[in-house]
Amino acid sequence: MICCLNPNCENPQNPDGTNFCLSCGAKLIPLLRNRYRIVGLLGRGGFARTYVAEDIDKLNEQCVVKQLVLSQFYGSQGTGAHKKATELFEREAKRLKELGEHLQIPNLYAYFKEGEYLYLVQQFIEGQNLLQELKQYGVFDEAKIRDFLHDLLSVLVAVHEQEIIHRDLKPENIVRRQNDNKLVLIDFGVSKQRTEATNTAIGTIIGSLGYAPIEQMQLGKVFPSSDLYSLGITCFHLLTNISPSSFWMKQGYSWTSSWRQYLKQPISHQLELIIDKLIRENHEQRYQSAQAVLQDLNKLPRLRNTLPPTVISHSELLETQPQVEQKAVGSGYLRLFSNNQLLSGAIITGSGSSLLAIALISFLGTTWISSGLWLLILAGLVFIQSRSLVEKASLIIIAIITNLLLVLSFKNLLTPNLIKFGINGLLLVMLLVVLAGFLTVIIVGVWEIINKFISKYF
Q1: Residue among 117, 44, 40 at smallest CA distance from 86
Q2: Which residues are CB-contacts of 123 (< 8 A; sequence separation ≥ 6)?
Q3: ∠ CA 383-388-393 to the nearest 5 degrees?
Q4: Mean per-residue pLDDT, 268-276
Q5: Helices 130-137/224-240 angle, 10° precision
Q6: Domains of the chain (ranges plus CATH)?
Q7: What sections of the protein cross the membrane (predicted)?
Q8: How confident is the model at residue 455 (pLDDT cuts 50, 70, 90)?
Q9: Is residue 338 classed exposed, middle or buried when 0-12, 13-18 and 19+ CB atoms within 10 A define those classes?
Q10: Helix, strand, coil percentages in the chain from 3-state DSSP, rounded to 5
Q11: What whole-number distance in Å separates Cα of residue 295 and Cα of residue 200?
């Protein structure tokens, strides 16, 4: 694709090989300065257009071309606005040249005039700006804010050492580089050298509403603490997903004293104090250097979101591990032998259900009616107990297995006339009930062995 460089073009994209723009009819420039192939529009500003381009001298490496647009917005070259826009554009090129050696600031590749426009070519940073990241992933938590501050403050230290004030620090001007996750500070279009005289006309706004401090907006004066104010406001935006410009339009600077009430999630008191000092209205009461903020940030206690309340040493952990493992095995299945109450319940259920079965067989015989009635009574007696559903089901299954074994093993002794045998019949009933209890213990033991085997190998 080839992109039209007419700033008024509504649809600048054109297929390769096209000589004139299909949208506005302007002549297309295949290579800007015989080197840069413009392939797409990145953004539109007040007096500039930004394009993504390919540098054919660097094996089509991507770069950013910024185009200064004057006549369409500021009339003839003699106007004050025209001169100011040109001055700011040249200033951005100078700042990038001075700071371009820093790994987290875009390098300047070229600055030139072609036709009626000025152009600035700089390094392309692939990634999302923090406003885009905020919209995609939601508000930052404390850990992410700390990482953000650590990363960006190191950049501001380098910028301020060159006596440069950025003057437009906000989420849109901070890009998270895709290949290493580092934050890159971009758009030095309104940056200022501290030694430069202040000649901002009254009514001229330099910076972004809500992010710029009072001394910058009202007096045109800036200090390192001015960028730090914008940094603190950026933290607020990232923590709340609320644009500070809406508060500034209604309340001016007074809203910064109550910023905590808008937090989506709590942060540590120590971090609150750092943000408080960053966004104080009086610039003399703020941090005076990025290095001072870093020092306080490094003093913050480590976050322990993932640590348990009690810290256990490695040796203690090794000593307690067999017990934990044993409990884990039982918790996945039926913890029968490790739970005496459940084992005793199984014996009582097995013995009691066998007594019930003998009574029903004595009166009704071994019929489907007696079997169904036995199961119904058994289920009722088990389910009225205050046990978990798993335990209740286990007791019923154990009782069924116990009585099946008992009936199949002593089928000839279980007759409807058993109770009529007097003392002998009563002794036989007691013997069968006790036998049912022993069968229950055996069944529970086998069940536990099966559970352990399954948990170990499956």
Answers
A1: 117
A2: 63, 64, 100, 106, 107, 108, 109
A3: 60
A4: 96
A5: 20
A6: 2-123 (3.30.200.20), 127-197+205-298 (1.10.510.10), 328-457 (no CATH)
A7: 355-383, 395-414, 426-450
A8: low
A9: middle
A10: 50, 15, 35
A11: 34
Amino acid at 24: C
Local confidence band at 355 (pLDDT 50, 70, 90 cut-offs):
confident
Q: Which long-range contacts (CB under 8 A, 24 or more apart) does 443-447 make?
A: 443/346, 443/350, 443/398, 443/401, 443/402, 444/336, 444/337, 444/343, 444/346, 444/398, 445/337, 447/334, 447/336, 447/398
187 is a catalytic site residue? no
Contact 228/160 with Cβ under 8 angstroms? no
Residue 411 assigned ligand-binding role: no
Kindly name the residue from 168, 180, 227, 296 that is annotated as catalytic: 168
Enter the tokens of residue 433. 């009930």
pLDDT of 358-375, one tens digit each? 777 766 666 667 677 777
Question: pLDDT, tens digit, for every residue of 79-130?
Answer: 666 777 788 788 888 888 888 778 999 999 999 988 888 899 999 999 999 9
Of residues 175 and 326, which shows the higher confidence score?
Answer: 175
Give the C-alpha separation, 223 to 167, whole Å. Answer: 9
Q: What is the mean pLDDT of residues 327-347?
A: 49
11 HSE (CA, 13 A, CB side): 8
Q: How confident is the model at residue 335 (pLDDT cuts 50, 70, 90)?
A: very low
| Strand 48-55 relative to strand 61-68, pairing | antiparallel
Q: Could you tell me whether strands 127-129 and 108-114 are parallel, antiparallel, or unpaired per DSSP bridges?
A: unpaired
Give the pair of three-digit tokens for residue 135: 């919209």
> If you search the block for the tokens 């389910």, which residue do you land on?
383
Question: pTM for this structure?
Answer: 0.62
Residue (of 116, 56, 127, 46) closest to 88 by Cα position: 46
What the block records as the tokens of 268 is 């540590």
